[in-house]
Amino acid sequence: MEPQRYQQLLEGLKRLKLRHVRQTLEERNEAAIARQLSYLEYLALLVDDEVAARQATQVQKRLQAARFPSGMTLEEFDFTVQTSVNRQAILDLARLQFVERHENVVLVGPPGVGKTHLAVALGRKAVDRGYRVLFLTVDRLVNDLYASLADGTLKSRLKSYQSQDLLILDELGYLPMDATASNHLFQVISGAYEHCSVIVTSNAPFQEWGHVFATPTLAAAGLDRLLHHAHVFSLRGESYRLRWDTDPALSQAT
Ligand code: ADP
Ligand code: MG
After folding, report:
1. Using CA atoms in the order 99, 103, 107, 108, what is the torsion angle rounded to 10 degrees?
2. How far is Cα 240 from Cα 10, in angstroms, rounded to an integer?
3. 128: closest CA among 231, 58, 200, 52?
4. Strand arrangement, sheet containing 230-234
5. How far apart are CA 197 and CA 144, in angstroms?
6. How distant is the alpha carbon of residue 195 from its chain centre?
7. Whose alpha carbon is nearest atom 1 of ligand 1?
8. Which of 119, 128, 210, 218 has the fewest C-beta atoms under 10 angstroms from its C-beta?
9. CA distance 101 to 52
């Protein structure tokens, strides 16, 4: 190809924002010649490159937007330590049909048993699949909504939660809420209902969840929506955080 024509091609690709095609053009060209690919096959390879690279960029962006705590992948979760949770059921959730069906997941149990870890692990799988996910502690959610109320952006913030595919609300029921906060939480839950999946983790058993909300009516309506299509897991056991102190084999190993 004439150098000038080639330059035109590069500029055209730039204008069309086909950055990755631009990058792999030479390499793919050489391969196409060596393997005697048809024109269409060559074009298909270039398009594959662009699509794959854009998908990877999008996953990376969504991973950042999700605000996960670091680590906590499903592969890192040791089901032999946490036997009160059905491994198969979690692996089944990791297929993410629950997100497709707008179902919820509720993880209840004492501190340190892996509730947040499992919630984040499922969230990470969802991002890998291209879903929009947001991780928030309930505390943070309440504070953010208070701030939005103050600067007049409450509606748009509530909308931004609803536009997620999966909302992870960590640590429900730690602090009692005033009327405004519990009303906000209710709006998030009812906004998500049958539109967006929610994963909730809590130290408190269901009977105590009512206390989180300011009035019994809000509590009943909120829990009703949250638990309607929910996969509920009750985790038990010692705190994973403390296991180094209590397991003699492990403490010797360090
Ligand atoms: P919870 O949310 O139930 O209080 P976390 O999920 O935050 O507990 O778990 C506490 C810490 O222990 C985290 O660092 C988590 O990654 C780790 N952890 C808990 N359970 C397991 C497990 N079964 N396998 C691997 N790491 C675990
Ligand atoms: Mg936790």
Report:
1. 170
2. 55
3. 58
4. 133-137, 166-172, 197-202, 104-108, 230-234
5. 20
6. 15
7. 112
8. 128
9. 27
Please give the average per-residue pLDDT across 71-88, as a whole number. Answer: 96
| Residue type at position 251 | S
Q: Name the packing angle between helices 19-34 and 39-66 (round to 10°).
A: 140
Q: Is 2 in the pocket of ligand 1 (CB under 6 A)?
A: no
pLDDT tens, 100-157? 999 999 999 999 999 999 999 999 999 999 999 999 999 999 999 999 999 999 999 9
Pocket lining: 114 vs ligand 1, CB cutoff 6 Å: yes
pLDDT (0 to 100) of residue 177: 86
Q: Tell me, using a 6 A CB cutoff, whether residue 81 lines ligand 1.
A: yes
Please tell me the distance from the alpha carbon of residue 192 to that of residue 185, in angstroms, as a whole number: 11
| Dist CA 244 CA 252 (whole Å) | 9
> Can you name the residues that pair with 166 across neighbouring β-strands?
133, 197
Better-predicted residue by pLDDT, 173 or 98: 98
Q: Are strands 166-172 and 133-137 parallel, antiparallel or unpaired?
A: parallel
pLDDT digits (tens, 9 = 90+) for 143-199: 999 999 999 999 999 999 999 999 999 999 877 788 999 999 999 999 999 899 999
Record the pTM.
0.87
CA of 131 to the centre of ligand 2 (A): 22
Q: What's the one-letter identity of residue 74?
A: L
